[in-house]
Amino acid sequence: MFDSIIQKDKELLVFLNNLGNEQWDSFWLVITNQFYWSPLFLFVFYLVIKSFGWKRGGFVIFALILLVAFSDQFTNLIKDTVGRLRPNNDLEIKHLLRTLINPQSHSFISGHATTSTFFSVFVILLLREKYKYTYFILLFPLIFAYSRLYLGVHFPLDISVGILTGVVLAKIYYYLFKKLDNKLFS
Questions:
Q1: pTM over 0.85
Q2: Entry's InterPro entries (predicted)?
């Protein structure tokens, strides 16, 4: 049964990846690069400082930086433990894919999907009572994660499990953050 799931995962990736065309390639190469999302991160930092003030806001920003560092290391640990080849390195399907980049690290789980979802859900939990449109930040991980399928460097399961992991980690992290925040700022 597991082999069947893996095979369907590969077939779905080939289908989704081949929906792309050269006209959109440069767009998705920009989307997949974290640097180009900097205005979003700066906007979130602005909202945090505006909502919580400098002292408490600085603590929240520090928590966000720790979140990203933890998430990155956590996904690398899983990738190295599982050792699943990236699609662009999988001899069975790589010739069927449109690949624009060729990372050599492992595939499962997607660090892009996990970290962007972790970040976004945590920000929503922090700011949802202050800003009703905070939920729009969920577009970030969805678009960011899809870029990895478009580029042929992650399987749909890598993305799906990464998103799920990001949601779970964000809820746990938020719970722990609130406990510490209450001790420090109450």
A1: yes
A2: PAP2/HPO, PAP2/HPO_sf
Q: Is the backbone of residue 53 left (phi > 0), alpha (psi -120 to 50) or beta?
A: left
Answer yes or no: is 1 within a domain. Answer: no
Across the chain, which has 186 residues, the per-10-residue mean pLDDT values are 91 94 94 93 96 93 93 94 93 92 92 96 96 94 95 96 97 93 82
In-domain check, residue 106: yes
Can you tell me whether residue 6 is helix, strand or coil?
helix
In the chain, the number of structural domains is: 1
Cα separation, 45 vs 152, in Å, equals 32
Residue 129, domain extent: 35-185
Residue type, 1: M
